[in-house]
Every structure is written in C-alpha cells, then in structure tokens.
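Researcher: Let's continue the batch. This sequence belongs to Winged helix-turn-helix domain-containing protein, and it's 106 residues. Same format as the previous ones, please.
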Amino acid sequence: MGNQELPQLDPVIHAQARLRVTVALAGLCADEQITFPRLQQLLDMTPGNLSTHLRKLEDAGYVEITKAYEHRTPVTLVRLTPRGRAAFEEYTRALHRLLEVPGAGQ
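Model: Same format as before. Here are the structure tokens for Winged helix-turn-helix domain-containing protein:
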C-alpha cells in the first residue's frame, strides 16, 4: 500500500447501533428534533439500549437531549448537534476514502 495511510473512523460513531442512531438523526433538518419513543420505534431498539448509545453520543457532544413537557406529559427530544453533524460528515468522508484505497476491498 506504500505511504498511503488508511483513514481513521470515529469510534464513537462507528459502533453499529450508534451509527444507526447518527444516520437517523442526520436525516433530520439541522434544527429538527425527534422524540425518544419515535427514534426508538424507527430504530427498533429497546429503551435501555437506545439510552446507552445516546449517552455515549451525548458525552461526545454529538447529540443534545432535551427534557420538556407537552400537554403536561414529559417528553424527551433528541437532535444531532452541529458538532455531531460535522463528525458524521467526516465519518462518511473517511469511509469513502477507505473504500477507495486500492486493494482495501479485496
């Protein structure tokens, strides 16, 4: 492969479940949020599993979780932060570069 170095993939995003969460959130508009139950339903994840992965993404500054009330009912809203969107865009660029490396797909 010579001097060409393989790009590094962000380990926070790279875990399969967190990648799925990030992809789902990246599909929203930059200022759009999704409710926790809707995200859970969309990804077919248990509440505990989704919470664990959201915590990792939140610790990295990639997602923002807001607790609010809607008609006196508590609601948890999730959105991708600008930092998270930039990290996801860099992740996809790195993945494309990785796939373009001669011999990497063999």
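Researcher: Any comment?
Model: The two ends are 13 Å apart (CA to CA).
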